[in-house]
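Lab meeting, item 3. Inverse folding demo.
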């Protein structure tokens, strides 16, 4: 297939050189280059490959980067020419650029139309009166899409398809418990290489085969009715699954807001302390939950009661450790109903646009479990098997084994490493892949959506650059596609590690992408 036509099919646009001249100043004011050359005349866009390479060299060698490590690889998809490179074979922390690899592997192994099923199991079918004897088991396989965000803000609307599946089976009463079963996944509920304080934040939500509402809740803090009184705390969706310890105080107007949230490991208790002014509109904090499968069961039980289904037992959960003692043979149970996730083409977008860690690691674990066989070691975790599948895929894509080190799928691990060479090779492979359009359409678009919605606006990169971002404390990366002013299609990977905290790298990365988008020359010169 002709490369030019293929990438136009992805929606790539050709920005004008004139737009570049008018808008590059906006980007460069954010960059180290602008700080070094504030009074210099606005440069014209580079017109030759030699000029572009020199400007890129000057940019990454600016004083703020004296102690940093740059990794850059820029290649023309149209000609195969390497436009620029710096340390392309060295290993860098990619942060969330890891998702580029996981999503590619999942699409390759499962296909863009693949859906993940959540099943309702029981020992028997309901009797003629609608009574189901024993427990109802909700068996999850990693569907990330049962949440309020995709269901009009209502957790019960999100659960309604499962409720209808049960009532369509004739169930009106359950004599046993509602069991949230997450045993499809084996291993701990967090990724390898995560740090303990990640687990307090929404981006470190627990990995569970039975996931609900991204395994988070929104904690709302509003001032109390009078100065000196505790603030009002509430959870959305409302639940008693999490306990709130209120140590806050309402203070006079004009006093700064000062709130602190502490979530001890392994507990569903949130300690909220600090102060909120009387006239403050309130504050919302995303909090993680422990044992999300249990929370799923609790919400589902309430959803059933709201629909008139009586439940005699309690809501509880079961993990792979529980099933080691009490094995669950799904083939010997009755499946009363099921629901399916959004297709992977949509999940890929839900991962890449906002950089969703949980969804990525759910997909890695799900692929891992699809490879489990009778010969698989009993203690192999879902993550272990997913990483093995990823390694096989990367070999298939032409990436050498020594070019990548992945412990988990999302990039939250500080031990994930890859090279700019490997990322560009991945793009070149996915460009020819049957899922190429799905893969590239899932990337954030500069100035438009996802993690790039507020970046590169009013530059030739806006609406042009499709790229995945990645950020950890000492790592900043961006990799993707850009179309030059001359209509040439480039793929790039840029990673900056160990840059001093006193300098923000984003503006410099954005300035480079604006420079590439405004390039009026050709790589064949």
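The presenter then showed the designed sequence:
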């Amino acid at each position: 297939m002709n490369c030019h036509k293929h990438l136009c099919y992805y929606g790539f646009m050709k920005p004008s050189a004139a737009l570049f001249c008018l808008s590059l100043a906006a980007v460069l004011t954010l960059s180290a280059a602008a700080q070094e050359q504030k009074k210099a005349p606005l440069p014209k866009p580079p017109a030759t490959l030699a000029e572009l390479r020199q400007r890129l060299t000057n940019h990454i060698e600016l004083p703020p980067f004296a102690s940093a490590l740059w990794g850059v690889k820029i290649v023309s998809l149209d000609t195969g020419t390497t436009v620029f490179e710096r340390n392309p074979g060295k290993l860098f922390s990619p942060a969330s650029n890891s998702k580029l690899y996981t999503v590619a592997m999942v699409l390759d192994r499962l296909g863009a139309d693949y859906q993940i099923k959540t099943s309702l199991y029981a020992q028997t079918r309901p009797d003629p009166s609608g009574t189901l004897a024993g427990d109802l088991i909700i068996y999850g396989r990693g569907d990330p899409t049962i949440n309020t965000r995709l269901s009009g803000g209502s957790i019960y609307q999100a659960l309604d398809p499962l409720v209808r599946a049960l009532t369509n089976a004739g169930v009106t009463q359950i004599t046993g418990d509602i069991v949230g079963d997450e045993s499809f996944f084996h291993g701990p509920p967090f990724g390898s290489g995560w740090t303990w304080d990640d687990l307090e934040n929404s981006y470190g939500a627990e990995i569970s085969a039975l996931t609900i509402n991204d395994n988070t809740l929104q904690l709302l803090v509003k001032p109390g009715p009078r100065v000196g009184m505790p603030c009002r705390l509430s959870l959305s969706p409302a639940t008693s699954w999490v306990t709130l310890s209120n140590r806050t105080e309402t203070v006079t107007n004009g006093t700064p807001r000062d709130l602190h949230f502490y979530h001890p490991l392994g507990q569903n208790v949130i300690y909220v302390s600090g102060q909120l002014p009387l006239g403050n509109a309130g504050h919302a904090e995303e909090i993680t939950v422990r044992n999300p499968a249990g929370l799923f069961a609790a919400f589902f039980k309430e959803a059933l009661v709201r629909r008139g289904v009586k439940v005699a037992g309690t809501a509880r959960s079961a993990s792979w450790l529980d099933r080691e003692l009490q094995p669950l043979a799904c083939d010997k149970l009755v499946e009363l109903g099921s629901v399916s996730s959004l297709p992977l083409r949509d999940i890929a977008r839900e991962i890449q646009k906002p950089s969703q860690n949980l969804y990525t690691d759910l997909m890695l674990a799900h692929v891992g479990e699809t490879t489990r066989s009778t010969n698989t070691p009993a203690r192999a975790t879902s993550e272990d098997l997913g990483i093995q599948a990823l390694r096989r895929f990367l070999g298939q894509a032409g990436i050498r084994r020594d070019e990548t080190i992945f412990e988990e799928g999302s990039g939250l691990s500080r031990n994930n490493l890859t090279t700019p060479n490997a990322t560009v090779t991945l793009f070149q492979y996915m460009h020819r892949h049957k899922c190429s359009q799905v893969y590239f359409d899932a990337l954030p678009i500069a100035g438009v959506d996802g993690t790039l919605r507020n970046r590169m606006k009013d530059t030739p990169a806006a609406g042009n650059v499709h790229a995945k971002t990645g950020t950890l404390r000492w790592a900043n990366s961006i990799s993707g596609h850009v179309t030059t002013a001359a209509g040439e299609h480039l793929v790039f990977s840029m990673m900056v590690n160990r840059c001093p905290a006193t300098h923000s790298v984003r503006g410099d990365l954005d300035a480079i992408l604006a420079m590439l988008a405004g390039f009026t020359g050709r790589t064949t010169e």
